[in-house]
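Input chain follows. Return structure tokens only.
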Amino acid sequence: MTLETSIEYVKGIGPERAKLIKNVLGLSTVEDMLNFYPIRYLDKSKIYKISQLQEESNQEIQLKGKITQVQ
């Protein structure tokens, strides 16, 4: 693998995910990935219920819920 190798050949990425990464982040080679520094990180491993939210928190979070009615 070289710096010019397409990211679709990186283990765990593949052609479909490589296409998504290219469209969203503009990354297409291993070198692009090594030189990419995101401006923020959103931890999506923690899922909160609406009842767990705090009013004064202005933090970005991921919620899990169920829509039971739409008006």
